C-alpha cells in the first residue's frame, strides 16, 4: 500500500519509518532541508532508533515538498503537522491540519485520512462535516521526544477514533509494524479518542506538578525531598515512576495539551485541570526566588533542551526560570550546543563549556550530567534521581 505522511517532525517521521518497513511511504514536508536530509537517510531530528533504521533498514521511504506527488495513489494519508497552542484564541492552531486534509481530499480521492496531530475534542467530527466527508479519522500518539520510534515499535496502546473497517485497517498497520506482541487496541468514538490524548497528558502533567509541589514544600521547610518521595513512592498505588522533581513540566506536548483541555472545560465545572496549568507557573516563580536569594552575579543556563536525548527546547521549563531571573536584572549566559546563534533572547550563548563554568557563579540545570560534576557546588538543580 502507498501511504503519505505529512509532517516529518518526531511524530510524522517515526510514523513514516514504522510504516515504511512493509509499505511504500512518501513523506511530505514544507522544509526542503528536512526533505533533503531524509532522502539522504539522515534524520532531521535527534532520535537514536530513527537514525539506526534510516542507516541500516531497507525502508521504502522517500520525501518531497510536493503534496500531489506524495498523495497521488495513496490509500492512507497521515497528518502529523504542528498544532501549537494559540493563547490569543485559547485553542490549538489547527490550520495546517485543515490545509493538509483539504489537499488529501483533492489529491488522494478515496484515501483514509488519519490525523496524528493533537487536536481539540470535537475537531474531527467538525472537520468531516465542514469538508463534506466521512474519511477523516483521529488516532492519538503517545510518544516521547527522542524515543518516538521506540514508542511506535513498543506501543503502550493503539487508539483509533472510529469503529469502521478503515479504522481497523489503520490499527492493524500500526500493530503490524510494531515489535511488541499483544499490543492493546482500542477503537472508539472520535471525541473519546481526542479526549484520551488530552486527559492522558494532563494526568502526566498533574503527576509532575504534584512531585514538584512536594519538593517546593520540602525546600521551604528544610526537609529532604528525596526521602519523602522515596517513602511516598513505595506505595504500589503511587509507584516510583515519573516522580523526579524538575523546574516544571515542559516540552511540546504537556504545556499546550493541559491548556487545551482546560479550554474544553469552558462549560463544565472543574478545579484540578486549572490547578495543573497554574501549578507550573507557581513552581517556576518559587524556584526563581530561591535562585535569586543566592545573590548570583551571573547565572548560567546549562542546556535549553527539555530532556536528555532530545534536540527540542520549545517550552522547556528552564526557559521559564531564565525569563524570571532576567526580569530581575541578573545577567544570564546560555550553554546550548544545539544553538547556532550567538544570542538567545538577548542572552549570550557560550560554546566553550569550561569558560561557561568559569564565568557563571550559579548554573541552572534541569537535569544533572557528568559535564557538571566538577562544579557541583555552583549547580542549582532539583534533579534528585538522575532521570527524566
UniProtKB/TrEMBL annotation:
Keyword annotations from UniProtKB, A to Z: NAD, Oxidoreductase
Keyword presence, Flavoprotein: no
Class in the EC hierarchy, top level: oxidoreductase
Region forming the signal peptide: none
Keyword Transferase assigned: no
Similarity annotation: Belongs to the UDP-glucose/GDP-mannose dehydrogenase family.
Protein name: UDP-glucose 6-dehydrogenase
Amino acid at each position: 500500500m502507498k501511504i503519505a505522511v505529512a509532517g516529518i517532525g518526531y511524530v510524522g517521521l517515526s510514523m513514516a519509518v514504522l510504516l515504511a518497513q512493509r509499505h511504500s511511504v512518501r513523506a511530505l514536508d514544507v522544509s526542503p532541508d528536512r526533505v533533503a536530509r531524509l532522502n539522504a537517510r539522515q534524520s532531521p531530528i535527534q532520535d537514536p532508533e530513527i537514525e539506526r533504521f534510516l542507516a541500516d533498514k531497507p525502508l521504502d521511504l522517500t520525501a518531497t515538498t510536493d503534496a500531489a506527488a506524495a498523495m497521488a495513489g495513496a490509500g492512507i494519508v497521515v497528518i502529523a503537522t504542528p498544532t501549537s497552542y494559540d493563547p490569543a484564541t485559547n485553542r490549538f492552531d489547527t490550520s495546517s491540519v485543515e490545509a493538509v486534509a483539504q489537499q488529501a481530499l483533492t489529491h488522494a480521492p478515496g484515501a483514509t485520512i488519519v490525523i496524528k496531530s493533537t487536536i481539540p475534542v470535537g475537531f474531527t467530527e467538525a472537520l468531516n462535516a465542514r469538508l463534506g466527508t466521512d474519511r477523516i479519522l483521529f488516532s492519538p500518539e503517545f510518544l516521547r521526544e527522542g524515543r518516538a520510534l521506540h514508542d511506535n515499535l513498543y506501543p503502550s496502546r493503539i487508539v483509533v477514533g472510529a469503529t469502521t473497517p478503515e479504522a481497523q485497517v489503520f490499527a492493524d498497520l500500526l500493530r503490524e509494524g510494531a515489535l511488541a506482541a499483544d499490543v492493546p487496541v482500542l477503537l472508539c468514538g472520535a471525541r473519546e479518542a481526542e479526549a484520551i490524548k488530552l486527559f492522558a497528558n494532563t494526568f502526566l502533567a498533574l503527576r509532575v506538578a504534584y512531585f514538584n509541589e512536594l519538593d517546593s514544600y520540602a525546600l521551604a521547610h528544610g526537609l529532604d525531598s528525596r526521602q519523602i518521595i522515596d517513602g511516598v513512592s513505595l506505595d504500589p498505588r503511587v509507584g516510583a515512576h515519573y516522580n523526579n522533581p524538575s523546574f516544571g513540566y515542559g516540552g511540546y506536548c504537556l504545556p499546550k495539551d493541559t491548556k487545551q483541555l482546560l479550554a474544553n472545560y469552558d462549560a463544565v465545572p472543574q478545579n484540578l485541570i486549572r490547578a495543573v496549568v497554574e501549578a507550573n507557573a507557581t513552581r517556576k516563580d518559587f524556584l526563581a526566588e530561591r535562585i535569586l536569594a543566592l545573590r548570583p552575579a551571573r547565572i548560567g543556563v546549562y542546556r535549553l533542551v527539555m530532556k536528555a536525548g532530545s534536540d527540542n527546547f520549545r517550552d522547556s521549563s528552564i526557559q521559564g526560570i531564565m525569563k524570571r531571573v532576567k526580569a530581575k536584572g541578573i545577567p544570564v549566559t546560555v550553554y546550548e550546543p544545539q544553538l547556532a546563534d550567538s544570542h538567545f533572547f538577548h542572552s549570550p550563548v557560550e560554546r566553550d563549556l569550561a569558560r561557561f563554568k568559569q564565568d557563571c557563579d550559579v548554573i541552572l540545570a534541569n537535569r544533572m550530567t557528568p559535564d557538571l560534576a566538577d562544579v557541583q557546588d555552583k549547580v542549582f538543580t532539583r534533579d534528585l534521581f538522575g532521570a527524566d
